[in-house]
Specification:
The structure holds two protein chains of two kinds.
Chain A (H helix, E strand, L loop, with lengths): L2 E4 L4 E4 L4 E3 L1 E4 L5 E7 L5 E7 L5 E4 L2 E4 L9 E3 L8 E8 L7 E3 L3 E6 L1
Parallel strand pairs in A: 2-12
Antiparallel strand pairs in A: 1-4, 3-9, 5-6, 5-10, 7-8, 8-9, 10-11, 10-12
Chain B lengths: L3 E4 L2 E4 L4 E8 L5 E7 L6 E7 L2 E5 L6 E7 L2 E7 L7 E8 L9 E2 L3 E5 L1
Parallel strand pairs in B: 2-11
Antiparallel strand pairs in B: 1-3, 3-8, 4-5, 4-9, 5-6, 7-8, 9-10, 9-11
The chains are: A mainly beta, B mainly beta.
């Protein structure tokens, strides 16, 4: 079946460290891929997206590249800040399903000063 | 301000109570969604509305009853809930029901059933 697998958290890093949050997926066809972020006490916000293979989504210093060969969409940031502490969700949207986003379980990121 | 407003932010209700969650968006979006977020579980899509018409009901128990009176408002009516229904209920909207449209989420209603 279709699914999204994220690395388990929490991920704890020091400020200015390099961040990678792994996301792999299983899906039929060619899905669109998303990263959403949920800051404490808030709803989810779209962080970035990629709609086809080799696309790179980027926003606020975060990047993720749609890798069809490894079915991955890992989230990266070169230098994290305390304000990046949040829960990050990877999700996919199947092209034959107009609204059924398939979500990962989320990865909690804690950045220490 | 995310563009999608949910009220109340927190709700505690007994198993015999009836309550409603409200979601409002003035983004001009035509699609609205209810999601359930439980600890350490993927988000669960509950209901999808497109232009006030329900297009998806993901096998949600009948104790949850959605209502979409217009494209800007979405309600979730609750009655005779169970403790396992305690969760964060998120409302979202998108321009249309279709691929590649990003969702705008509200901040959620934290529901506790006692």
């Amino acid at each position: 079946g279709n699914s999204v697998t994220q690395m388990e958290g929490p991920v704890t890093l020091s400020e200015e460290a390099f961040l990678t949050i792994n996301c792999t997926y299983t899906a039929t066809g060619y899905p669109s891929l998303f990263w959403y972020v949920q800051y404490p006490g808030e709803g989810l916000q779209l962080l970035l997206k990629a709609t086809k293979a080799d696309d790179k989504g980027s926003n606020k210093g975060f990047e993720a590249t749609y890798r069809k060969e490894t079915t991955s969409f890992h989230l990266e940031k070169g230098s994290v800040q305390v304000s990046d502490s949040a829960v990050y969700f990877c999700a996919l949207l199947l092209r034959d399903s107009n609204y059924q986003l398939i979500w990962g379980a989320g990865t909690k990121l804690i950045i220490k000063p | 301000e995310t563009g999608v407003t949910q009220t109340p932010r927190h709700l505690v209700m007994g198993m015999t109570n009836k309550k409603s969650l409200k979601c409002e968006q003035h983004l001009g979006h035509n699609a609205m969604y209810w999601y359930k977020q439980s600890a350490k579980k993927p988000l669960e899509l509950m209901f999808v509305y497109s232009l006030e018409e329900r297009v998806e009901n993901n096998s949600v128990p009948s104790r949850f009853s959605p209502e979409c009176p217009n494209s800007s408002h979405l309600f979730l009516h609750l009655h005779t809930l169970q403790p396992e229904d305690s969760a964060l209920y998120l409302c979202a909207s998108s321009q249309e029901v279709g691929i590649n449209y990003g969702y705008t989420f509200g901040s959620g209603t934290r529901l506790t059933v006692v």
